[in-house]
Amino acid sequence: MALREAKLDSSLAGLEKALAGVRGKTSGAVATAVDRWRSDAEAIRFHLRDDGEDRPMLVAILGGTGTGKSTLVNRLLGANLTATSFRRTFTSGAVAITSDEKNLPERWLAIEHRVVSGAEVPARGQVDALAVVKEERELTAKITLVDTPDLDGDQPLHHAQADRVFRWAQAIVFLVTPEKYQMTELLPYYRLAKRYAVPALFVMNKAEEPGVVEDFQKQLAARDWADARAFVIPRDDAAYEPPMEMNLSSLRSAVMTLTRPEKEAFGQGLARRSVDLLGRLQDQIMTPLREDRQQVDALVASVRSLETPGIGVDVNPITQGLQRRLQQRSVLYLMGPQRVLERVRQVPGMMMRMPRTLWDVVVKGQGVRLNDPARGQAAVGPDGRAVPDFKAAVSDQFSVVQSRIEDVLRSSPAGQRWLAGNEESYKQARLEPGAAGQIVADELGELEKWLEERWNATPRDTLLLMRLLRHLPGGEKLSKWTEAAPYLLAVVVATHHAFFGPVDLVVLGGWSLATWLTEKLSNEVAMRTRAANRRIAERFSDLAHTQIGKVSDWLNAQAPTTWELQQLERSAEELYSVVGENS
Asked: What is the per-residue pLDDT for 538?
C-alpha cells in the first residue's frame, strides 16, 4: 500500500504540536526525550516535503573519536576547511561545506545556520548551530558535505549533535579505523541506515594491511550490507596501498554520484522511521508521563488532606485584662447585689474613718486610675505574666503547615525530583508566613480598638446604681464619690458598713436588674473574645486553603493533565493508522 505522504505529514505535525503543549510540564530525561522526538519528527517531515531534486544531496560523515572525519572532509575537497586536531572530541558542532548557502534548506537540522569565513576558517563548529562554509568545488556542485562531532566521545551532547545530522541527512559516509571498526556506538547506525533506506558508503581510514579491510567487509555483510561499497584510505606512513576501486579518488567519485532511493523504498523508510518514533513515544515519553500523572494525583490528594488545620490561638489573655477592669469598676460585680443594698442602708459614719488617700478623692474630687493601659495592664495575663506574641505564634504555625506540605512532597521520589528541578517555581507557590501573622495583627487591632473604647467606660450597672443613689438621703455625696472613682463606692460601703435607707431592686421582665447587668457584663467580654478567636481561625484556615491550592496547582503543572495525555494517545493512534501497514 502506498504511503499517504500528506496524511503522514499532518499526523506528525499534530502529534508534534501536542507534545509542544506538554513540554513545559516535563523535566529531566522525559524533557530530553520530548526534544529529541520533536527534532526527529521534524526530520521526517523535512524528507517528506523535500522536492529539491536539482539541489545537491546532503551527505554527512559519521564516525568515532580519532577516526579523522574532519581530515577526510578536507582531503575530499582538497582544502583546509574544517578544523582538525590531535586532540580528541575537537569538533563540537556540525559544519556544512557548500558552494552556496541556499543549497541548505531553511532551518535544516532545526537549528541556526551561521555562515563562517575569513579567520573562522577552518571551522570548528558549535553546539546547536550549523556552521556553513562556502567553497566552490567540483564536489560541492554535486553534494553538500557535512562534518559531525564524534558518536562515541565523552560528551553526550556531541553524540546528540551527530545523531541529529544522521536523522536529517540524505546520505551517509560511515568512517572507521582499524582500531574502531567494531565500535558498538556505530554499529546501530548501520542497521538504521538500511532500515530507513538511507544511501550509505563505508570508509576505513588509517589502514595498514588488507586483512583488517577484509574483516571489515565481512562485518558489513553480516549486518545486512552485503552490497556495501567500502573504501580504504591508508595511513600516510603505511606501505599498504588499497585497490584503485577502493582508494580516495574512487571514494570522491562515489560521493559525487550518490542518488536518492527509489520512491517505494523511500516511503517504506519514512514509515519505519515513524513507527520507531511511535515506539520511543510510548516507552520514553508516554509511560513516564502517565506515571508522573499518577504521582501528581496521589500527592495532590495527600496535600489536600491537610485542609482545615487547627490553629490553637486564644486571645483571652488580652480580654481578661479588660474583664478585670470592668469587674473592678462594677459595684454589683464586686459586692453582689444583695450585699450592696445591705451596705448602703448603714450609717454614714465612714466619712470620719476613711483613709487619707480616699479623703482626698471624696473631698477634693481627685480621680484614681487603676489598671491604666499605659502601665501595661493590657499586655499581661491575669497571673501577671506577659501576653504571648500571637503574631509570631501564628506565623510559626503557618510555617509548620508549609513544612507538612513539603514533607508530603518529599515522601515521593517524583516529588523530590520536581522540587530539585523546579526550585524557583516552587518558591513562587509558597506564601510568606508573615501573611498569617498579619491576620493576627489585623484582628488584634480591631480587638484593641474595642478594648480602648470600653477601657474607661463605666459599666451600666454602676451608672444605674448611681442614678438610684441620687434619690437616697446622702446619695448626692455618694454620687460624687462614684463619679470621681466609681470603684470607691463598693470599697467604702464594704469596709465601713454604711447604710442610707432602703433601696429596692428594680425588676425588668421578671429578671432582677443586678442579675441582668452582671450577665451582660461577663457575656460581652466573652463573646468578643470568642469572635476574635473565631475570625483568626477562619482566616488562618482560608490562608492554609490558599497555600494548599497553590501547591496543588504547582504539582499539576509538573505533569500533563489526563486530558492532554488522552490527546497524545489519540494523535499517536492516528499516526500509526497512517504508517502501520507500510512498516
From this structure: 85
**Mean pLDDT, residues 115-125 taken together:** 87
Say if residue 324 is in the same domain as residue 255. Answer: no
Q: Which residues pair with 386 in a beta bridge?
A: 380
Are the C-beta atoms of 278 and 572 separated by less than 8 Å? Answer: yes
Of 353, 230, 266, residue with least CA distance to 5: 266
CA 107/CA 115 separation, integer angstroms? 13
The grid coordinates of residue 27 equal: 523535566
The label of the residue with cell 486530558 reads 563
214 with 363, same domain: the answer is: no
pLDDT at 183: 87
CB 62 within 8 A of CB 186: yes
Cα dihedral sign, 421-426-428-434: negative
Smallest CA-to-CA distance from 32 within 167, 148, 157 is with 157
In this predicted model, which residue has the larger pLDDT, 125 or 221?
221
Domain count, the chain: 2
Range of the domain at 550: 316-564
Q: Give domain status of residue 3, yes or no.
A: no
Cα distance from N-terminal residue to C-terminal residue, the chain: 10
* Integer Cα distance of 262 and 198 in angstroms: 11
Could you give the CA distance from residue 484 to residue 445 in angstroms, rounded to a whole number?
A: 30
Most trustworthy range by pLDDT among 180-184, 377-381, 428-432: 428-432
C-alpha neighbours within 13 Å on the C-beta side of residue 389: 6
Residue 156: per-residue pLDDT: 79
Specify if 255 maps to a domain: yes
Strand partners of residue 96:
132, 146
- Among 283-287, 405-409, 441-445, the least confident range: 441-445
Joined together, the cell numbers standing for residue 347 give: 450609717
Q: Judge whether 493 and 338 are in contact, CB under 8 Å.
A: no
More confident residue, 241 or 384: 241
Output the nine-digit C-alpha cell for 555.
Answer: 504539582
| Residue 1 in domain | no
Closest CA to 217 of 172, 176, 274, 163: 176
The answer to the question of residue 518 being in a domain is: yes
Nearest to 288 by CA among 35, 30, 36: 30
- Highest-confidence range of 113-117, 247-251, 401-405, by mean pLDDT? 247-251
Sign of CA dihedral 351, 357, 361, 367: negative
pTM attached to this predicted model: 0.71
pLDDT band for 523, please (50, 70, 90 cuts).
Answer: low
Three-state secondary structure of 103-129: HCCCCHHHCEEEEECHHHCCECCECCE
**What mean pLDDT do residues 220-238 have?**
92
Which three cell numbers mark 56? Answer: 545537491
Shared domain for 348 and 423, answered yes or no, is yes
- Residue 540's pLDDT is 86
Q: Which residues contact 123 (CB under 8 A, 6 or more apart)?
A: 81, 82, 83, 95, 116, 131, 133
